[in-house]
Amino acid sequence: MSNVPTITLNDGRAIPQLGFGVFQVPPDETARATRTALDVGYRHIDTAQMYGNERGVGQAVRESGIDRGEVWITSKLNNGYHRPDDARREFDRTLQALDSDYVDLFLIHWPLPTRYDGDFVSTWNVLQELAADGRARSIGVSNFQVAHLERLVAETDVVPAVNQIEVHPYTTNEAVRGYGHEHQIVTEAWSPIAQGGVLDDAVVTEIAAAVGRTPAQVVLRWHIQRGDVIFPKSVTPARVEENFALFDFELDDAQMTAISGLDRGEDGRTGPNPDEFDYIPD
Ligand code: NDP
Q1: Domain range 6-266, CATH class
Q2: What are the DSSP E strand ranges found in 80-194?
Q3: How far, in Å, from the CA of 239 to the mean position of ligand 1?
Q4: Dist. CA 44–CA 29, nearest whole Å
Q5: Beta bridge partners of 230
């Protein structure tokens, strides 16, 4: 029923390239927002332990009547749980909250290189256990820089299936994306419209006028044509629909290049630098 393309991961599984993100969706609104997305046709939901709303995602999938096997659900390990026993216990809680006996993709949310004596490798080894027993069907990381990925590749046997990082026209993050391309790690682009911050840019609005689409659709289409996985967030039903209508138009090479040219490098980030970020929620 859906016209969303899939991307094949290095473990052979196919992930829908477009999904729905629920960061900053309040827990008591998550079931409704996720249900709206499922009704529109989204079959991929991106949540996290840190967002506090996995339960609402599980509820929406259950109440939608859609087969669990038709919806891709990603969640992520919270920053306070990198020690192996904590990671195993909290993963169980994720499955309970989702009311599912598996998750499609489980990620280490942040590398936290200044915490845990810089050891994210033993956390990655726990995710490999979860993959081996089938409860995390695919495993990956988030906010990993090139040096962090190099360590996993050098010290462990399993290359992450994805790396979920900040990517949008103001921070194109090419070095990390490039490493991913070379090592079959799919890039998932978080905050794909920079939380709305790129939508007023004249380059974007001019292209939107030229192709007869909204600025959000133009920026999301730019990601799709670059081959990254995206999951824009919105609690506004009309926008949820708008963000799903990306597969009946194309940007030409000049339009793609103009949007990529908006890159401001580190200055363009909306979120923290992963080398420094050390936040552990209470
Ligand atoms: P987005 O770039 O998806 O932007 C969301 C914001 O843009 C909201 O304020 C929303 O408003 C608004 N918006 C959405 N669609 C439109 C539209 N068509 N026109 C105008 N405004 C629009 O930001 P997120 O930070 O939420 O990123 C998306 C997802 O990425 C997250 O939900 C999460 O799943 C993931 N993520 C992962 C991170 C990580 O560390 N791994 C970090 C950050 C995000 P409204 O809701 O009011 O409609």
Answers
A1: alpha beta
A2: 103-108, 136-142, 162-166, 186-190
A3: 11
A4: 18
A5: 18, 189
* CA dist list (Å): 96 to 57, 135, 241: 12, 12, 30
List per-residue pLDDT tens for the chain, 282 residues long. 478 999 999 999 999 999 999 999 999 999 999 999 999 999 999 999 999 999 999 999 999 999 999 999 999 999 999 999 999 999 999 999 999 999 999 999 999 999 999 999 999 999 999 999 999 999 999 999 999 999 999 999 999 999 999 999 999 999 999 999 999 999 999 999 999 999 999 999 999 999 999 999 999 999 999 999 999 999 999 999 999 999 999 999 999 999 999 999 999 999 999 999 999 998
Q: Which atom of ligand 1 approaches the CA of 240 most closely?
A: 15
Q: Report, as residue numbers or ranges, the catalytic residues.
A: 51
Which residue minimizes the CA distance to atom 36 of ligand 1? 190
Please answer whether residues 10 and 185 qualify as being in contact, where contact means their C-beta atoms are separated by less than 8 angstroms: yes
Domain ranges of the chain: 6-266
